[in-house]
From TrEMBL:
GO terms for molecular function: 2-isopropylmalate synthase activity; metal ion binding. This is 2-isopropylmalate synthase. The keyword Transferase applies. SMART domains: LeuA_dimer. The lineage of its organism: Bacteria, Bacillati, Bacillota, Bacilli, Bacillales.
Amino acid sequence: MKRVHIFDTTLRDGEQAPGASLHPEQKIIIARHLAQLGVDIIEPGFPISSPGDFMAVQRIAQEVTGVEICGFARAVKDDIDAAIRATEAAERRRLHLFLSSSNIHLDFQLRKSREQVIQIARSMVAYAKQFVDRIEYSPMDATRTGDEFLFEMIEAVIEEGATIINIPDTVGYALPEEYGAMFTRVMNNVRGGKGVEYSAHCHNDLGLAVANSLAAIRAGVTQVEVTVNGVGERAGNCSLEELAMAIETRKEALGAETGIQTWHIYEVSQKVSRAMSFPIAFNKPIVGRNAFQHEAGIHQDGLLKNRSTYEIMDPDRLGVPRSMIILGKHSGRHAIKHRVSQFGVELTDDQMESLYVKFKELADRQKVVQDHQLMELIGHTVNTVLEPYTLVQAQVLTGTTGVRMASCTIMDNAGKKELVLSGTGEGPVEALVAGISQALPITVEFTDLELYSLSSGEEANGEAVVTVSANGCHYRGVAVHRDVLMAVAQAYMAACNQAVRDYARHPQAASLANDGEVEITIP
Ligand code: KIV
Ligand code: ZN
């Protein structure tokens, strides 16, 4: 197996995506996660670009160990000096220099001749080489350059001491077979070309960044430059998680492997998405919320028999926490029965049939039937309320100043009493959570909130996905409402109900917070 080195440029090229910029502290946290994820090289920023970026690169070089740190610079002395200073403390480091090579860039952007550009490339690589041995060189816009000049530039920088040749598809123009063949030609024809490492750097303008990177690997490159979630200029860069999982899943076919610790993938993807305020498309491979979810009855049936019927990767190995079966109008009896049994509820055949009819009626009216709604339907079927608590009503007072206040009425279904509670917080969500939490017999921590706008206009709906943790377990509640705060309140209630139900089923595993205050009896 050939070991492919993962060069992560989320914090440099990824951060160049409009609106994605990060504070130094955020960069440091993400860099630590990247190191844990097992990337080989981190390019943490562009040191000359701002004092903040310089500081971020410097701190990452000082504090993040176990990876090579790459200083990024134009082929300009001041840039190189800044990159050298910023990466001084790194355990291992390299310098990455770039200069355009295509006529389009030379004529319209640099306004320099080919001779001048070769001269700059030579002198700047030689300058950088005095300070750092590992020099990566990128002829920018290489895929629109043409062999003759590309070879000339690469030969020149190798002669001056470049040790890694990165050939960027800067504008995402290449097709996979072209990109792979370009590496083969460079490797075979450039003087000194056999003694350096090669790297692929692909942009995704035509949606081909991963395919092009794989073609480069097949042609012999040993490094691929990627970003988490594929963030980057325009349509982004080659996505780390997609490339890593393509290699992992098809390693025999590719004869390659990476050092990525796959079980951190989802967590890192979430961290980057949040830090950059960049939502992940629902259907994004590997990390999108639908990536491992199935609604079609035939698929659900197959999955319940054997996961590999419709899944080529195991989401558990990626740290993906979502349930794979989504209940909706395409779901069949088998999937519903399975979910009912997961709730620990047993139904007779007649009850199951009646539940199925009710389920289909509801599923026809809405896209997805959430767990708490299924619980309610089961409750109607067996004439009992199964959820420990029902949020009867909630109100929240919010505004531009002062604390936010919430009041809510919660039905304690087992104790058959209505609880009227209030809470305050810096924001309306905090106030609602504070109010609802008082009803609970266990300590529940609100760990995460995802909000989605599901439609626009007067009928707009907000979807809230709330994750809580209790007694070392995570629970997720989902609710859709025209008032987004009510969606949050209901989703929180749904997640808490799961935690309380679990506690009621396995009390020995839990520690009571409000010992004995509320008695829970769940049928
Ligand atoms: O896309 C590109 O060309 C780059 C280089 C500067 C490596 O990001
Ligand atoms: Zn790039």
